[in-house]
Structure of Methyl farnesoate epoxidase-like:
Amino acid sequence: MVFHADGSTRLMLNRSLFLSNANSAGPSAFGPRGLPIVGNILDVKRLVDETKFYSHAWCRLADIYGPIVGLKLGIAEPLIIVSGKDAVIEMMSRPQFDGRPNGFVHRLRTGGERRGVLFTDGDVWRDQRRFALRTLKEFGFGNGTMEDIILNDAVSLTTTIESLSKSGPITNLYNITSIAVLNSLWTLVAGARFDLENPKLTEILSVVNGIIRNSNVTGGILTHMPFLRYIIPGLTGFTVLNQRLTRMWQFIGSEIARHKQTRTHGEFRDFIDVYLAEMETKQSSSTISSFDEEQLISVVKDLFSAGVETTNNTIGFIITYLIVKQDVQRKVHEEIDRVLGKDLLPRIVYKNRLPYLNATIAEVTRLANVGPTSIPHRAMTDSILLGYEIKKNYSLLANLRSVHMDEQHWGDPKVFRPERFINDEGEFVEDPWLIPFGLGHRKCLGETLARNSVFLFVACLLQKFQFVLPPGHPDLFLDGVDGFTIAPPDISVVAIKRI
């Protein structure tokens, strides 16, 4: 991969950063030298202020220093930014880098210890992940039962949108879709569904959105300099973050308490019931186990956060792009009309017969980069990556955006062109350079659910509606809004009924 930097970027970096092949991130890692104590915090802030996105800043650094960039952010372990397809694939495929960091924020989010499936490693992670996958599959995860659940929520969503559209432009479309997406997952996890007007759900979705929009994959200042929470808890964001995490913990805890009161021994309604039974089995055998109520809350929290946010953002970006690209939306409508007509519901069995819809989803996924980097990895041992020394406990970020926007591979990466995923026979062709769910052992466990949800929700919405902007709406900023993930812009939408 060849990295490029424009003149202004080179000038800015040459003035403010010092290239060193022996900086604090390792004797073989190139990167800005940084300052005492704060390290590269100010350098990163300067780049993010200029580019508006952390992932764009990582690409700028890769332009200057190459595929392996070392940063020292405060007192935390050095952070290695891994860019370019070869480096990203090697890092994510090697078990030496399968760990997760043990920073303050990573512990705070799950009650003060590393718990759950997202930010654990070793035996705890393997046991919890294996149990979660097996149990969710038993309740329909990845099969026809799950498809029926998603379709039911997608059809309900179209009914809601049709009703709301009678009153004019819809101002909260993405909030509405997030409830529908959550219901599909929550049916498996907690055996329940949420009503659109449920005030508790509205509050929790707001809490989750606040956490994700006000954080980033580096962990922020609370990871870089955690002692500051004692000095300036408000300015560091600790006070608000702790309140939001506590509210999320209480919400899931109350759902588990309800299950304890209503469950019947030997009968399993959902994931929580099965987990509670597993806890009892482990405790009665007197064996050391990672299965306890705090772990259950943490696993459900991980499923809740990761399972809803990225899927809903992807759906939101697809609608946003098609509002701007009406010619593409028209082609998708024509294909859906030809294959499904007015009466057939979209189903996975029809997926291969809708190549242009699949290509459009893939192209939005590539350009929007909802998850522009991996969740941070941790080096489990001293290792070498592409000739660079990576010490044990260093954190590593896979810069997926650098792969999705590689000019040598894609040719015109900034251009929205679904046809790049269509071959000469008119068939949809997957590209191995599109890796939104990551690779290796830490690949997203909800990939199948996410792919099916996006396809079914988008197909149902576009079968039913044409989406346009209301008159006088300002031009859209398609880059979205930065945070732990990238969110689509807030917009008003006119949904015109087609059938």
Summary: The two ends are 47 Å apart (CA to CA). The domain at 1-97+372-402 is CATH 3.30.43.20 (Uridine Diphospho-n-acetylenolpyruvylglucosamine Reductase; domain 2).
